[in-house]
Write a structure and sequence with these properties.
With about 280 residues, the chain is of the alpha/beta class. About 40% of the residues lie in helices and about 15% in strands. The structure holds 3-methyl-2-oxobutanoic acid.
């Protein structure tokens, strides 16, 4: 099958000759088939290519870029221009996965700015969808985008744009907080999001939301009952050694590999072992 001519040859996938572009609608449909949705949050061309070729279904260009790549304490300094820049790089690399651009703080304060900024992500940066944080507070914004046929991903539970320098913790442990999160999830589902991120919520609450809403849920620190899972690629690769939330599983120790390579380069240059004749021009 082919959509918008977006068919690619991806050598590392099981069926390398014809690969179909995964649309937000296809992500939505995965809930019916019960197939788990695999997602990574990443920010650049090479990691996007690697993740796409590995078979990741949905790539988020998260505003966590402000913390992971720029070293900030939170996501509040991330601007629309930063996010467009990273989304362009990711979209260029991705042939198969759905690309979801995170709308940064203050880029969707009202429905009209939400619409014009979301359109920039789709038209200028090549994203397939956008993500907004919050429930009731962003109802009008989500409605505006859905009416304009822009696929929207919701995000409830811990909302990094809300807490700023505050506490990164599990949200929804007490019944009042859990009720608000559940109601927000139901509202977003009703308004028409194609999927919903559940961040740092108790597994039981995530399970209840997943059973209640029609759209698929994608968890991060939300247990195993969600319809899909997302992690920040750098966390999974072991490249953010200072940060190790309980919900992260490290599949590699790139920090060690990169450090070793850098130390070898230092040694070779200092011992005049680099460059060799072969690595030089005559
Ligand atoms: O910013 C981000 O990377 C995210 C995902 C982890 C959900 O919001």
């Amino acid at each position: 099958m082919e959509e918008d001519g977006k068919v690619a040859c991806l050598g590392r996938l099981p069926f390398p000759d014809k690969i179909m572009k995964i649309t937000p609608q296809a992500i939505y449909s995965k809930k019916q088939t019960g197939e788990k949705i695999v997602s990574l949050s990443l920010y650049d061309f090479p990691t996007a290519r690697i993740a796409d070729e590995a078979g990741v279904d949905l790539i988020m260009v998260g505003d966590s870029v402000g913390m992971v790549l720029s070293g900030h304490e939170n996501t509040l300094g991330v601007t629309i221009e930063h996010m467009l820049y990273h989304t362009v790089a990711v979209s260029k690399a991705v042939k198969r996965a759905t690309v979801v651009a995170d709308m940064p703080v203050h880029s969707y304060d009202d429905p009209e700015s939400a619409l014009s900024n979301a359109q920039r992500f789709l038209k200028e940066a090549g994203a397939d969808a956008v993500k907004l944080e919050g429930g009731t507070k962003v109802r009008a914004q989500v409605q505006r985008l859905v009416a304009a046929e822009i696929p929207v991903m919701g995000h409830v539970g811990m909302l990094p744009q809300n807490i700023g320098n505050g506490k990164y913790r599990v949200y929804g442990k007490n019944p009042e907080e859990a009720k608000v999160i559940l109601e927000d999830a139901k509202l977003l589902d009703k308004v028409g999001v194609f999927s919903l991120v559940l961040e740092c919520v108790p597994s039981k609450l995530a399970e209840e939301i997943t059973k209640t809403v029609r759209c698929p849920t994608i968890g991060i620190g939300a247990g195993s009952s969600t319809d899909g899972q997302v992690l920040v690629f750098q966390d999974l690769l072991g490249i953010r050694s200072g940060v190790s939330p309980r919900f992260v599983r490290r599949y590699a120790n790139l920090e060690e590999i990169l450090g070793k390579a850098a130390r070898s380069f230092c040694r070779d240059v200092r011992r005049k072992k680099f460059p060799s004749k072969k690595e030089s021009f005559s």
